[in-house]
Automatic annotation (TrEMBL):
This is ATP-grasp domain-containing protein. One of its GO terms (molecular function) is ATP binding. It comes from the Bacteria. The keyword ATP-binding applies. Residues 227-286 form the ATP-grasp domain. It comes from Aurantimonas endophytica. PROSITE patterns: ATP_GRASP (PS50975). The keyword Nucleotide-binding applies. SUPFAM superfamilies: Glutathione synthetase ATP-binding domain-like. Keywords: ATP-binding, Nucleotide-binding.
């Protein structure tokens, strides 16, 4: 037994939660779909679930794995990341066994129901794109989205996409994509900062998530309006723990697309050894917020390196230091799969983004040379 507290954690990829837990002096008992080597290094115990990504967790397999991880450890609760947005009933089943450390399942259900969230925005006076369940008469300016989808891969043009029970339509909003990360303690929150996001489109997934860079230096255009929008939403729907709000900046002000109330991809951007994000998250679960957020003190670009062709990872392959989510070699990747996460730090947003792009290109060159 360890003298350190422990938490159960699960997500499509749980490495970021486990690394933040280690910085916070907490033992992570973590599982995800990949079982990468750096998850195993960061967690006290870890498991990999096979065969269900990207369709989602198998409830019985997930709970059985959590019980194995928790055996003899007395975890203080369960922290979740991406993969539960459309599964509030699974969070309820987990919550019957361990305390949910974060936004509760009932609130997640309201947050991720398209009509409920649209009504919430209207009541709060926050701009939100028009939505609907029926195919619009002019679908050219609309998107089709999976209810509770994550990562952007589920988003496609509405044209040619018939209605489905698990999907809805949202009108396209043109403008710059900016996200605001925060830690919530009910109706109150501490803002972590802003990130600029980008996509890496493919033929099948035109809105596939690419990465994010931040924290953006002040002043951020329309920043106060974005903060006011989050504050207005929290007044009507209190949240708990790490969260982020995705906006599009238009000439008429910010338009809120969605709020994700869980640990997300930008943990790599905002993580700080001086103020670990999981420590902030657990404090928020107790109703405590920091007087000030110190942040990482540098600008980071963090995102996915997607494969453009089939790749074989040979035995003994040494991942560069700038990579995260490292598959243990030997392994094979099909075209269109995420190869790893790449992180780049610099003094400015432009320099961090440029370094990120060079590092992704460097990875591709390494594998092209091996394939030649």
């Amino acid at each position: 037994m360890s003298d350190r507290p422990s938490v159960l954690a699960a997500a499509f990829s749980a490495r970021q939660i486990a690394e933040s837990a280690r910085l916070a002096g907490v033992d992570a008992l973590a599982l995800d779909f990949f079982g990468d080597s750096d998850l195993a290094a960061a967690a006290r115990r870890s498991e990999v679930l096979h065969g269900h990504y990207p369709d989602g967790f198998d409830a019985d397999a997930l709970i059985a794995a959590l019980e194995r991880l928790a055996d003899g450890m007395a975890p203080i609760g369960f922290v979740y990341g991406a993969g539960f947005e459309d599964r509030p009933e699974l969070l309820e089943a987990i919550g019957a066994r361990w305390p949910i450390l974060g936004t509760d399942p009932a609130t997640q259900r309201r947050l991720k129901d398209p009509e409920t969230f649209a009504a919430l925005c209207a009541e709060a006076g926050v701009a939100h794109p028009p939505i609907g369940r029926d195919l619009p008469a002019d679908p050219a300016n609309w998107l089709s989205k999976k209810i509770g989808g994550a990562g952007g891969s589920h988003v496609v043009a509405a044209t040619g996409q018939p209605p489905a029970p698990d999907r809805y339509y949202q009108r396209v909003v043109a403008g710059e994509r900016i996200s605001l990360a925060f830690v919530a303690a009910g109706t109150r929150c501490a803002f972590l900062g802003f990130t600029r996001q980008w996509t890496v489109p493919s033929a099948a997934e035109p809105y596939r998530y690419g990465g994010a860079v931040g924290p953006l230096p002040d002043p951020v255009p329309q920043g106060p309006a974005m903060q006011a929008a989050v504050t207005a939403i929290l007044a009507l729907l209190p949240l708990v723990g790490m969260a982020s709000a995705d906006f599009v900046l238009t000439a008429n002000g910010p338009v809120l697309l969605e709020i994700n109330a869980r640990a997300g991809a930008t943990l790599d951007v905002f993580e700080s050894a001086a103020q670990p994000l999981l420590a902030l998250h657990l404090a928020a679960c107790r109703g405590e917020l920091p007087e000030r957020v110190s942040g990482p003190g540098i600008i980071r670009a963090a995102g996915l390196a997607w494969t453009e062709s089939d790749i074989d990872l040979p035995a003994g392959f040494a991942w560069p230091d700038f990579t995260r989510d490292r598959t243990t070699p030997p392994a094979s990747f099909a075209a269109g799969q995420p190869l790893c996460t790449v992180v780049a730090e610099a003094e400015t947003e432009e320099a961090a983004t440029a370094l990120f792009e060079r590092r992704v290109a460097d990875l591709r060159e390494r594998f092209e040379r091996k394939a030649a």
